[in-house]
Write a structure and sequence with these properties.
By secondary structure, the protein is of the alpha+beta class. The protein has nine helices and 18 strands. One of its GO terms (biological process) is proteolysis.
Length: about 325
């Protein structure tokens, strides 16, 4: 399964090479031409069947996942680190990681609870409380194995919990990358561009470059959104998002207003085709939407989001039905042009 391969590939922010190579191999099998810009974004252009159509539609997802970067050595041989992207620090202690291209194994260490004082047991965990232990006994030994600036990824494999529920690292946004590849398997009347972007987790940097290169008429962000169906939702916090009830199609993403005509169009297509989807007013985070607006291009923007539980922690869950329904809906939407 392509999605499983993508999720198991290594691609922390700024170190997306392994994931990029996997996507390149898939595109070559499909005989699709693509380019890679100086930032590392992959850009695919599939010419439309209708030579008279000048409409350019761009689908965008990001390759990078949250990860860690080694920042310094401790005298006892352990390593200090920082995060690559925003993540839940409380999910890090006692997790295994793979460091650098040689995948050196380590454990994120935290002072054992029975050795903590009262203050330590009650305060929130910070990165200063954590270190990575690779089993080294000295700083010099660690320096001979690990370089400063090496990345660390979480040692978590893709796994099915049932016929439809999966758990994995990097669902945000290998789901989107997999959907882009599925979309490229069919022909459309419009000119279709697919952008596999880098460095989304540290300011949506990659999408600036890819969007500016294409200057599309319609930009569609394919990403994930927090599913909050396991917690009590305050009505003032907005509508809940559920696993298994289809992709989320909002009118607003963070501070960005999405194109209402395209939102209504894709929602109408879903209803006419009996494809389940979730209607919400907006999401807290803008994702790629604000970034593409800042390029100054005159385009219409749409977001199609796949619900995931436990986003921005080391492991997430999603429902494959939502993934499949997103593909079905996007194909019908693009073929409507």
């Amino acid at each position: 399964m392509l999605l499983e391969k993508l999720c198991n590939s290594i691609g922390p922010t700024g170190y997306e090479g392994d994931t990029r190579n996997l996507i390149k191999d898939e595109l070559k099998i499909m005989n699709l031409e693509f380019s890679i810009d100086n930032m590392g974004n992959i850009l695919v252009h599939k010419k439309g069947k209708n030579d008279k159509s000048n409409l350019k539609v761009m689908l965008s997802a990001h390759m990078d996942e949250c990860g860690l970067i080694i920042t310094s050595y401790n005298s006892d041989g352990t390593l200090k680190f920082s995060t690559l992207g925003s993540m839940n620090i409380n999910s890090l202690p006692c997790k295994t990681v793979l460091i650098g291209k040689h995948k050196i194994r380590g454990v994120i260490g935290l002072k054992p609870i029975h050795l903590q004082n009262k203050k330590e047991r009650t305060h929130s965990i910070s990165l200063n409380d954590l270190c990575i232990d690779i089993g080294s006994y000295s700083k010099s030994e660690t320096k001979s194995i690990i370089d400063l600036g090496d990345f660390a990824e979480f040692n978590i494999e893709f796994e099915k919990f049932s016929d439809t529920i999966i758990k994995s690292k990097a669902l945000n946004d290998r789901l989107g990358c997999s959907i882009l590849i599925e979309m490229l398997k069919e022909d459309y009347n419009c000119d279709l561009y697919a952008a596999f972007n880098v460095q989304e987790n540290i300011g949506q940097r990659g999408v600036f470059a890819s969007n500016y290169s294409v200057k599309p008429d319609i930009f569609v962000s394919i990403d994930t959104v927090n599913a909050n169906d396991l917690v009590d939702i305050d009505i003032n916090e907005g509508a809940p998002v559920f696993l298994g009830r289809g992709p989320v199609i909002p009118f607003k993403a963070g501070i960005s207003m999405l194109d209402r005509s395209n939102v209504k169009c894709i929602r109408s297509i879903a209803e006419q085709s009996d494809i389940v989807y979730q209607r919400i007013a907006g999401t807290r985070k803008e994702g790629q939407s604000t970034s593409v607006q800042l390029t100054g291009s005159n385009m219409k923007i749409l977001s199609v989001l796949i619900p995931c539980r436990y986003m921005n922690s080391i492991v997430s869950m999603c429902d494959l039905n939502d993934y499949e329904n997103t593909i079905k809906l996007l194909k019908k939407y693009i073929k409507s042009f």
